């Protein structure tokens, strides 16, 4: 029985023995907890057709990597790019100034934002090839093109490999076959 099965608590972690499981479970993003419950529930164990596929797990982990954030207090946690997030350590509510909305993912914009081929190329699950990263220029965030392709913005600018585009809410960037909006 999965320790966090919502319908069977017979295998719950014990307070004095399984502290890590008890402390860490609430720190995981809700979509990951939901995936674990779906993947390891009694119902799914009895019916293999209901299991999560490898590609679904891959997309969940890509999303998680995009949401890793380091709070000014030093705590590293998974931060929701859209909604305000309280830091688990200092409780400060962190809200991103903007995020990059792609067809599959919402990626928060901060000093360590990175985009991979899975974010910028249609149908790609390539989570290794780095195609863009943020550059902080004063108070502005810029996105540096690390791909081999030209990007285009809605206002007609071309972003050649190695150059940057300033990120502002409302900006649309075409990476080729994938469009992203800065929200």
Account of the 3D structure:
- The chain has 183 residues and is an alpha+beta fold.
- A hairpin with a 4-residue loop joins strand 5 (99-101) and strand 6 (106-108).
- The chain has helices at 19-24, 30-40, 42-46, 54-66, 117-120, and strands at 68-70, 76-78, 85-86, 93-94, 99-101, 106-108, 114-116, 130-137, 140-145, 151-153, 158-159, 164-166, 172-174, 179-182.
- It starts with 18 loop residues before the first helix and ends with a strand.
- 21% of the residues lie in helices and 26% in strands.
- It has a six-stranded antiparallel β-sheet with strand order 6-5-14-13-10-11, with no helix packed on it.
Helix content: 10-25%
Run of helices and strands = HHHHEEEEEEEHEEEEEEE
Number of helix segments? 5
How many beta-strand segments? 14
Principal-axis shape equals globular
- Spatial gap, N to C terminus: 41 Å
Radius of gyration: 19 Å
Low-confidence segments, given as residue ranges, are: none
Derived structural class: alpha+beta
Q: What about the largest sheet?
A: 6 strands, antiparallel
Mean pLDDT: 93
Strand order of the largest sheet: 6-5-14-13-10-11
Instruction: Report strand %.
Output: 25-35%
């Amino acid at each position: 029985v999965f320790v966090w099965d919502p319908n069977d608590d017979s295998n719950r972690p014990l307070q004095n023995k399984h502290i890590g499981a008890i402390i860490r479970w609430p720190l995981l993003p809700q979509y990951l907890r939901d995936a674990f419950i779906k993947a390891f529930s009694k119902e799914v164990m009895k019916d293999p057709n209901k299991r999560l596929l490898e590609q679904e797990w891959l997309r969940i982990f890509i999303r998680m990597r995009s949401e890793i954030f380091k709070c000014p207090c030093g705590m590293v946690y998974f931060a929701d790019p859209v909604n305000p997030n309280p830091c688990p350590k200092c409780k400060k509510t962190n809200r991103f100034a903007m995020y990059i909305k792609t067809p599959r993912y919402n990626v928060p914009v901060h000093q360590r934002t990175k985009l991979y081929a899975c974010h910028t190329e249609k149908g790609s699950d390539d989570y290794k090839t780095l195609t863009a990263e943020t550059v902080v220029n004063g108070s502005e965030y810029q996105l540096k093109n690390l791909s081999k392709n030209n990007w285009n913005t809605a206002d007609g600018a071309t972003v050649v490999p190695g150059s940057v585009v300033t990120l502002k809410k409302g900006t649309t960037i075409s990476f080729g076959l994938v469009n992203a909006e800065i929200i």
